[in-house]
Amino acid sequence: MEQIMCGMLARSKAGHDAKTLYLVCRTEGDFVYLCDGRLRKFDSPKKKNKKHIQIIHKIPEALANWNGEALRDEKIRSILKDYKMKEVHDVESRCN
């Protein structure tokens, strides 16, 4: 199984939240704890089976030196928003 680290981004593959982008805030056995800063705050992350997520192996620059301390939900939303904007820009540049 692939190595999942705190600070990585992940996309849900199953459940009512399929295709939702999250930040991995904790790992525990076969489960990860995910937060998005909006519905799932850092203080109450979503517990999800590792089989039900797709890991994005790039750790955002804003989290490169993160040591696991609590993050503000605004920071999490900002990181996810920046990634989504970059993803859209990359797709648009490939289409032209």
TrEMBL record:
Lineage, top ranks: Bacteria, Bacillati, Bacillota, Clostridia, Lachnospirales
Ribonucleoprotein listed as a keyword: yes
CDD domains: KOW_RPL14
Keyword Ribonucleoprotein: yes
Name of this chain's protein: KOW domain-containing RNA-binding protein
Sorted UniProt keywords: Ribonucleoprotein, Ribosomal protein
